[in-house]
Amino acid sequence: MKNIALIFGISLISYTANAQIDYSTEIAPIFTNNCNSCHGGGANNFDSSPYDDLISSTSPSNRYNKKHIIPNDAAGSPLVDKIEASPDFGSRMPQGGQLSTDEIAKIKQWINEGANEQVQTSNEVVTDYPDKFELLGNYPNPFNPSTVVQFRSPVSSEFKITVYNANGQQVNSLVGRAVVGQNDFSVNLSDQPSGVYFYRIRAISNVSSSMIGSGKMTLIK
Fold this sequence. Notes:
Blueprint: H1 2-18, H2 23-34, H3 36-39, H4 51-56, H5 78-83, H6 101-112, E1 134-139, E2 146-153, E3 157-164, E4 170-178, E5 181-188, E6 195-204, E7 209-219
Antiparallel strand pairs: 1-2, 2-5, 3-4, 3-6, 6-7
């Protein structure tokens, strides 16, 4: 009987530790109680509610320059950096206090599980991961002075965006790290005159680079 009880206890602990985090009952209340007073509706460069706005909320180019939440990558998500001690930019959030260790752990587990709005109810996890690099374009276009270049990546890799003017002269470049899935990166041409520009994106590995795509953008001041 002792062995049976021990096995049952271990199984119960394992099940509890691996249970998926539910957004509506475990994550949304954390944001409601701690974030919405300052960030509800997209204030202060972060939108904490509702879910669709939260998951698409993007940090400005002069800070993290990517979405606040990177599904399946809590360590690389700006939101996690801001709620933990000594963030890369600014002060720790929320202002006037801090989340509990349990709350932070729940948010990190939720993100690593895919940051889904609904708990997966089957053994088959639905993913939207691309099987190849795909350039989605840039928005807004025309723009002034910044535009966001979007592409999808099948792997986590270094990348380089190079911008050329109509004469083929390089006027800007941006090097960063892409995550699996969709990536959004801001390009600023505030120091350039109005006109048509062309950009090229390459994925970079230790030994080679491969073309992701190229496009045209129009700066109107």
